[in-house]
Design goal:
Chain B: It comes from Marinobacter lutaoensis. Chain B: It holds the Pfam family BCA_ABC_TP_C. The complex is a heterodimer. Chain A is an all-alpha fold. The longest helix of chain A has 27 residues. Chain A folds into two domains: 86 residues, no CATH class; 304 residues, no CATH class. Chain A contains 17 helices and two strands. In chain B, strands 6-7-8-3-9-10 form a six-stranded mixed beta sheet, sandwiched between helices. A four-stranded antiparallel beta sheet of chain B has the order 2-1-4-5, with helices on one face. Chain B is 37% helix and 24% strand. Chain B has a single domain, classed as P-loop containing nucleotide triphosphate hydrolases (Rossmann fold, 3-Layer(aba) Sandwich), CATH 3.40.50. Classes of the chains: A mainly alpha, B alpha/beta. At the A-B interface, helix 10, helix 11 and helix 12 of A face helix 2, helix 3 and helix 4 of B.
């Protein structure tokens, strides 16, 4: 509510401090502490945070569980990969092919000209529009088909999962058009700028952090408007929202498209940061992993989702380096643990155990009550009350 | 109003039928509401009372028949369109947004910014605050505006839900057992509340409490097995032998 009043005041509020802390971590601490290779990996983890933030809005707030967010992530990623691949496939660079000037995998698959849907990806402007537009368009179609027919809950989750499976099969099957199971690889430059150097990777990392904050603030804006309250209300009392005069389906479609847009941006950044895109980042397993990032971080907390994506991916890399075969079991155990022991994830644990300590510290330092009311909450400084806290405006 | 065949009725239900797998929960039902009338529907369990409200507000689709409201045919409209046409519905169990405060509950129901973009652009201006406060006064919750609805008593939640309807400024209010589960004092206050409401609304109420029905009703419709058994003043239906046999007798 009170955010627009004064940005400085907001930064000094408790919520603002949490955002500052994340910014400090991502912009100062990690770049100083890590070598370019590791920083690039953190950048990769952060591209998943885009999806997780979208899931907080879509699943945590509005109660729409999508097990197919990898689809939107992948579409954004493929849009970017197609642009980069075309740039790498100049007639000079591909002179040894039987048809020079088309991507190498097309040549291997006996294609002799560029398919029509690849043509527009010569344009960077088109690519930028498409990497958000294509995921949003698909989300819109799915949303129109599902939500206006009141398909929800488990059925919706299963359908989104099926879509993830279908897209994977489609991409793998149409090898000549999509690069098949290998994906689109050997990407080199973005508008003539080599993305494989350490400097480029570091710069891309900062672009990723910047866009992630843009995405966080967008989500925060939506959630602090009346629209955000309607989403939460819809989750708990869909019928009452409907009979208060709202077209529930339109709101669900909106939030689903919003999450798809975030995922698309994340996917495009993934392609830039990692240097290739393949169906393995889209499919069922990848999509479910994305839900786990969100669940572990805290599905009601935007910042929690970012930490969830960072931590799970860091753990995944760590384990995969030493004990690769154990990782799936550990991740399964993590997910079960979250569901059973702390359903609101790390953010929920933080609210339960750390925030009361924080409040006490605050009080000791200043004789007057802490200057926290700028977060717009009534229970500031008081112990966490799960009854009230669950769906109140974002905070952790 | 461009009413032609519904004349000066606010609501004209004609030949309304709904069948669930062959079972006719409402069977060829017809009744008419005048503007500013308080009509109470009574009847034994399973008579189809709640289904009638469901049909009017669009929660259930009619198999056949027509529901004309202020010249509009409601049977083909979606729920939220029916709300915008001016029909408010309160459910039997209080359904308020527990996680929102009383103020926010009322604000959500305020009839502005109901589209996605409208809800994004919505601002809490003086008109909203004034409307919320005036309704809160009517429903005895003026001093509870900042409390989460989860902390209200059962009776207060019922009032809040009525308030959420009032702020929509509907022409027709439909209340499903508004005093069920209320204490004696809450009941009295609710009767007062309904009196205030009926000064400028048409109200359709389902109620079992005959004392309460007698206090508020202009006319009573008795339903039995999806049909109208009797209709008229409370005295008239109370003395109707058919009504005594199926409903009041036990």
């Amino acid at each position: 509510m009170k955010t627009s009043a004064s940005p400085l005041k907001w930064l000094a509020s408790r919520e603002g401090l949490y955002y500052l802390a994340l910014a400090l971590l991502l912009v100062v601490i990690l770049p100083l502490a890590l070598d370019p290779f590791r920083l690039n990996m953190v950048g990769k983890y952060l591209t998943y945070a885009f999806v997780a933030v979208g899931l907080v809005m879509c699943w945590g707030k509005a109660g729409i569980l999508s097990l197919g967010q990898g689809v939107f992530f992948g579409l954004g990623g493929y849009c970017m990969a197609m642009f980069l691949k075309l740039e790498a496939s100049t007639p000079e660079a591909t002179a040894i092919q039987s048809t020079p000037g088309i991507p190498d995998f097309m040549d291997w698959n006996q294609l002799t000209e560029l398919p029509w849907f690849w043509e527009p990806f010569h344009s960077f402007a088109f690519t930028l529009i498409a990497l958000i537009g294509v995921p949003v368009l698909l989300a819109l179609i799915i949303g129109l088909a599902m939500f206006t027919r009141r398909v929800g809950g488990v059925y919706f989750a299963i359908i989104t999962q099926a879509i993830a499976a279908i897209l994977t099969i489609l991409i793998i099957g149409q090898q000549g058009y999509t690069g098949g199971v290998n994906g689109i690889t050997d990407l080199q430059t973005l508008m003539g700028w080599d993305i494989r150097t350490d400097e480029a990777k570091t710069l891309l990392y900062f672009v990723c952090v910047g866009l992630l904050f843009l995405c966080l603030f967008t989500a925060r804006f939506v959630q602090n408007r009346k629209l955000g309250r309607i989403l939460v209300a819809m989750n708990a009392q869909e019928m009452r929202v409907r009979f208060s005069g709202y077209d529930v389906a339109a709101f669900k479609i909106f939030v689903f498209c919003l999450a798809a847009a975030f995922a698309g941006v994340g996917g495009a950044l993934f392609t830039l940061i990692v240097g290739f895109m393949s169906p393995s980042f889209i499919g069922i397993v990848a999509s479910i992993e994305m839900v786990i990032f969100c669940a572990l971080g805290g599905r009601l907390s935007l910042l929690g989702a970012v930490y969830g994506a960072l931590l799970v991916n860091a753990a995944k890399s760590g384990f995969s380096e030493s004990l690769p075969e154990l990782w799936p079991f550990l991740m399964g155990a993590l997910f079960i643990g979250v569901v059973l022991a702390f359903p609101n994830g790390l953010a929920g644990l933080y609210q339960t155990y750390v925030m009361p300590l924080e409040a006490r510290l605050f009080r000791r330092r200043t004789p007057t009550p802490p200057a926290a009311p700028a977060t717009g909450r009534k229970d500031d400084g008081k112990p966490f009350d799960p009854m009230i806290d669950h769906f109140s405006p974002e905070k952790s | 109003m461009n009413t032609v065949n519904s004349k000066d009725f606010l609501l004209a239900v004609e030949g309304l039928t709904v069948s669930f797998d062959g079972f006719k929960a409402v069977d060829d039902l017809s009744f008419y509401l005048d503007p500013r009338e308080i009509r109470v529907i009574i009847g034994p369990n399973g008579a189809g009372k709640t289904t009638v409200l469901d049909l009017i507000c669009g929660k259930t689709r009619a198999t056949s028949g027509s529901i004309r409201f202020a010249g509009k045919e409601l049977t083909r409209l979606k729920e939220h369109q029916i709300v915008h046409a001016g029909v408010g519905r309160k459910f039997q169990t209080p359904s308020v947004f527990e996680d929102l405060t009383v103020f926010e509950n009322l604000e959500v129901s305020y009839p502005r910014g109901h589209s996605v973009m409208g809800a994004l652009a919505f601002r809490r201006d003086a008109a909203v605050v004034e409307a919320v406060e005036s309704v809160a006064e009517t429903i005895f919750l003026k001093d509870q505006l900042d409390r989460p609805a989860a902390l209200l008593s059962h009776g207060q939640k019922q009032w809040l839900e009525i308030g959420m309807l009032l702020i929509q400024k509907p022409d027709l209010l439909m209340l499903d057992e508004p005093v069920a589960g209320m204490s004696v004092t809450e009941r009295k206050k609710t009767a007062e509340l309904l009196k205030v409401i009926t000064e400028n609304h048409t109200v359709l109420v389902i109620e079992h409490d005959m004392q309460f029905v007698g206090d508020i009703a202009d006319r009573v419709t008795v339903m039995h097995q999806g049909k109208v058994l009797s209709e008229g003043s409370i005295e008239h239906v109370k003395s109707d032998p058919k009504v005594i046999e199926v409903y009041l007798g036990h």
